[in-house]
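This section describes the prediction task in plain terms. A model, or a person checking by hand, is given the sequence of a single protein chain and must write out its three-dimensional structure as a string of tokens. No templates, partner chains or ligands are provided. The sample shown here is typical of the held-out split.
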Amino acid sequence: METEAGPDSLPRVPGTGRPIPEAEPGLVERWQSRGGELVELLSEVHGRLGGIASFRVGPTPTVLVTEPRAVQHVLARCPERYVKRSHRARLLIGDGLLAATGAAWKRQRRLLQSQFTGAGMRRYEQRIAEAARTTADRWDGYARTGRSFDVAEEMRRFALDAIWRSLTGHPLDDAIERQLAAVAAVVAALPTLPADVTEAQDAVATELARIDAVARHAVEAARSGAAGPGGPGLLHILTEAAAEHPEYTNRLIRDELVTLLVAGHETTAATLTWLHLLLDRNPAAREHALAVGPEGSTERRQAIQALVHETLRLYPPAWLLPRHAAEDDTLAGHAVAAGTDVLVCPYLTHRDPGLWSAPERFDPRRFITPDGRPTNPGAYYPFGIGPRACLGLQFALRESVALLEHLLPVHVPSLRSTPPKAVYGITVRPDGPVPATLQPPRV
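The expected answer:
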């Protein structure tokens, strides 16, 4: 974790600085009167006031941060001053890594980090490949029969299979898939659940019970030493940790398992669904990627990865990163008082015309063309940056590219309809199914 000021850091003089530009009350009142989405308010505040701005929905101001160097300051250089508080998904993930703080977070992060980089990732590449082949075989069947299917559901099924194989060593079967549909149901319900914790739990009690049952069975199997056909999974790492770390109780292992399920498939599924929608509107981007190098080449893989990166730019999974100022600070010359809520917004940073040329255009070449994108790390951060950046970045990229290498050369979905809008919840996802058919595979 980097906390010392470097040559590119922003100056800090606690408690001093000029006021942050604040949106006029009428702007917020108009937004409230029309029942608008939060993203609409943030977009208007950003458009009027720039990359560091404030607005008031209640008695105290909330600060919106989109300017790249300020993003780095909050997320990467000074994470001890801008902290996470209660995670919106705590009802589902409990004390898992996404919701953990302080010493518990450091301990949990240290255990999992090695599993998602370097040699750790190589353990899961075969399992990802098997999940991709399973999906490709299923799509071959759709093409032969002409059967309609839901692209969004297919991407969810693939991503869930990939993370389930990595966690347990077993492929996803139909029974487990039906039970784990409760995960997506709870995630979708979170933004509308009652504020009272007990009432919220009661509203999704049936779904939580299904998730707990699957988790309990998987933890028991891992504790017994029973490995799947793919060998031990990441869940075995968690159960073995209990021998040296008594805090890894069955409950905490359950929470980490569910956290990895949520983080490991919801975001990837949404990204791959958006990618298919974007390719439907921009077929030349698909043809360009397939024209770069022979199948299996590094050049082809990089071109496909650029498709994924451009999708992540337009629809970052973690579209909003809430933080809380734990102490007074100075941010880009502006005073930030302790207790201020701060919203870092990748969605708006990624669509800022001052940073990206034609930001609303789907143009994957910006990620493979020299000088095609901003070089400041705070200009592109779909998985966050700094010590709390998502551990699963490499896992998500590898599984996405693995699947696309199978599907893109063979199948072009013909979409029968498309969702009318996006839903901005814990993730940003299409609002509705994406029904499609396939033509027979090309010879």
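For orientation: Residues 275 and 311 are 6 Å apart (CA to CA).
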